[in-house]
């Protein structure tokens, strides 16, 4: 089964910082990618979908680099409430999830 | 719009016992998934249904796990007999289109003693 790799972190940043996570994938045929946010002891919640080169939603920007087979998530002006684990997922015959990257935003 | 419902939320059993989990997907979502999430890992797909048919169960330990979605709506996942390593959160998700945006239920946290 194709793998999805993420840096587990934790990423510790102050409020207002910009932080970026990368996620590498091995299935070059995949057309769709997703970023999920998961709070402690909660279910994953869909944050962004990426179908072409990228997507932007407020402070969050996702970029897809097909040549290097990675997707990134950029968070600008970090808030305390952004503290969570961020999971990336690649769609193929099924969704393959990475292990997640933990972000901790401090005041 | 109601989300994905799951029950129970928590379950503690002893090894070799049986347990069953229930899921009700978002209305109109034909595709239903069961995932296992072990602490510190991402969700791992166990089984995927399209309506009441199985699309992918390649990672389901079929000697002890079974799942059904008889009427194409609700689904149950059963473990019999449970092992210590089955301790995990069991997440149900649904989507309108297969392998597109998936929405998760709150999960069932299983502890096997």
Derived structural class of chain B:
mainly beta
Mean pLDDT of chain A: 93
The gross shape of chain A turns out to be globular
Please, how many helices of chain A? 0
The proportion of residues forming helix of chain A, as a percent range, comes to: under 10%
Helix fraction of chain B, binned, reads: under 10%
Strand content of chain B: over 45%
Return the string of H and E elements of chain A.
EEEEEEEEEEE
**Strand percent estimate of chain A:** over 45%
Q: Could you explain the architecture of this structure?
A:
The complex is a heterodimer of chains A (107) and B (113). With 107 residues, chain A is mostly beta strands. Chain A has no helices and 11 strands. In chain A, the strands form 2 sheets. In chain A, strands 2, 4, 5, 9, 10 and 11 form a 6-stranded mixed beta sheet that branches. A 5-stranded antiparallel beta sheet of chain A has the order 1-3-8-7-6, with no helix packed on it. In chain A, β9 (84-91) and β10 (95-97) form a beta hairpin. The model of chain A has no long low-confidence stretch (mean pLDDT 93). Chain B contains no helices and 11 strands. The termini of chain B are far apart. The relative contact order of chain B is 0.33. Chain B has 113 residues and is mostly beta strands. The chains are: A mainly beta (107), B mainly beta (113). The interface between A and B is medium-sized, with 23 and 21 residues.
């Amino acid at each position: 089964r194709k793998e999805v790799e993420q840096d587990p972190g934790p990423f510790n940043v102050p409020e207002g910082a910009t932080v970026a996570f990368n996620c590498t994938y091995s299935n070059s045929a995949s057309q769709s990618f997703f970023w999920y946010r998961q709070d402690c002891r909660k279910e994953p919640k869909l944050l962004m979908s990426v179908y072409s080169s990228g997507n932007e939603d407020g402070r969050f920007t996702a970029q897809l680099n097909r040549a290097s087979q990675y997707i990134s998530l950029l968070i600008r002006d970090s808030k305390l409430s952004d503290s969570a684990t961020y999971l990336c997922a690649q769609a193929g015959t099924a969704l393959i999830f990475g292990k997640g990257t933990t972000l901790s935003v401090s005041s | 719009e109601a989300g994905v419902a799951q029950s129970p939320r928590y379950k503690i059993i002893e090894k070799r016992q049986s347990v069953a989990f229930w899921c009700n997907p978002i209305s109109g979502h034909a595709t239903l998934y069961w995932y296992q999430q072990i602490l510190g890992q991402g969700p791992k797909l166990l089984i995927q249904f399209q309506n009441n048919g199985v699309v992918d169960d390649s990672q389901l330990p079929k000697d002890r796990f079974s799942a059904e979605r008889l009427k194409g709506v609700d689904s149950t996942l059963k473990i019999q007999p449970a092992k210590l390593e089955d301790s995990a959160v069991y997440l149900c998700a649904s989507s309108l289109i297969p392998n597109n945006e998936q929405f998760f239920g709150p999960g069932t946290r299983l502890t096997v003693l």
